């Protein structure tokens, strides 16, 4: 058995540890894996091209990311902070709870890509949550600031993860249906989606409590 192709995994780990460009690291690791597996360079490039062509939705990233980068360059985060600072009574807890509800509802309707870390959290949600926290509690320590940013990212994750299963045409629901059917429990995707609603409600309540708990700790200066 040829173990040399596994060197590609080591290249990924080393490249990320040294903080090299992620895209460059992945491409180099893919090329190295293919060559060490005995493929010629043309075959490796063909395999990469076929994978990209079979997953053409990935190309949307190359449109979204430059747009977000330009918006940030011209002050999108500062605008977002300014909006929150001008809203009376705005707090980090209220803002992230509203975003959690929005993320769950849109994911439940199948619009799971309407939010996300690169297109929503980094340019809008995180700076707005940070501005709301500073408006309520004054200048934040670096550790507290990182906790606010982390909570913003976690809110997006929780909203998407527990909201998307309510949408019966999502891949995870179809996977669960297939598993149940293989064990002799024929269920429709709609039945599984309905039973995902109580879990989503519990997730909303629990994470909303976590958000408010962090907001209260920031207020007491013990976050």
Q: Please, could you describe this protein's structure?
A:
The protein is built from 10 helices and no strands. It has 223 residues and is mainly α. Helix 1 (7-17) packs antiparallel against helix 2 (22-36). It starts with 6 loop residues before the first helix and ends with a helix.
What is the mean pLDDT? 83
The low-pLDDT segments are: none
Radius of gyration: 22 Å
Any idea what the shape is?
A: globular
State the share of residues found in helices, binned by percent. over 70%
Strand content: under 5%
Number of helices: 10
Give a quick precis of the structure.
It is built from ten helices and no strands. The chain is mainly alpha-helical.
Quick tags:
10 helices, 76% helix, mainly alpha
Give the helix/strand layout.
Blueprint lengths: L6 H11 L4 H15 L4 H14 L5 H14 L2 H11 L5 H17 L8 H21 L4 H23 L6 H12 L6 H32 L3
């Amino acid at each position: 058995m040829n173990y040399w192709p596994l060197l590609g995994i080591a290249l990924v780990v080393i490249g990320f540890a040294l903080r090299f460009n992620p895209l460059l690291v992945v491409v180099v690791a893919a090329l190295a894996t293919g060559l060490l597996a005995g493929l010629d360079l043309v075959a490796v490039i063909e395999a990469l091209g076929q994978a990209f062509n079979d997953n053409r939705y990935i190309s949307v990233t190359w449109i979204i990311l430059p747009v977000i980068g330009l918006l940030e360059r011209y002050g999108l985060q500062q605008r977002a902070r300014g909006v929150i600072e001008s809203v009376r009574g705005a707090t980090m807890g209220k803002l992230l709870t509203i975003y959690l509800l929005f993320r769950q509802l849109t994911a439940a309707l199948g619009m799971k890509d309407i939010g996300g870390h690169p297109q929503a959290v980094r340019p809008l949600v995180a700076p707005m949550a940070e501005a709301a926290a500073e408006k309520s509690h004054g200048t934040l320590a670096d550790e507290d600031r990182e906790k606010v940013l982390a909570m913003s990212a976690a809110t997006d994750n929780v909203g998407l993860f527990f909201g998307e299963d309510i949408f019966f045409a999502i891949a995870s629901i179809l996977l669960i249906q297939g598993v149940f059917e293989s064990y002799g429990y024929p269920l429709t995707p709609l039945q599984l989606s309905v039973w995902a609603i109580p879990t989503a409600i519990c997730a909303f309540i629990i994470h909303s409590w976590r958000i408010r708990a962090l907001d209260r700790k920031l207020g007491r200066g013990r976050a």
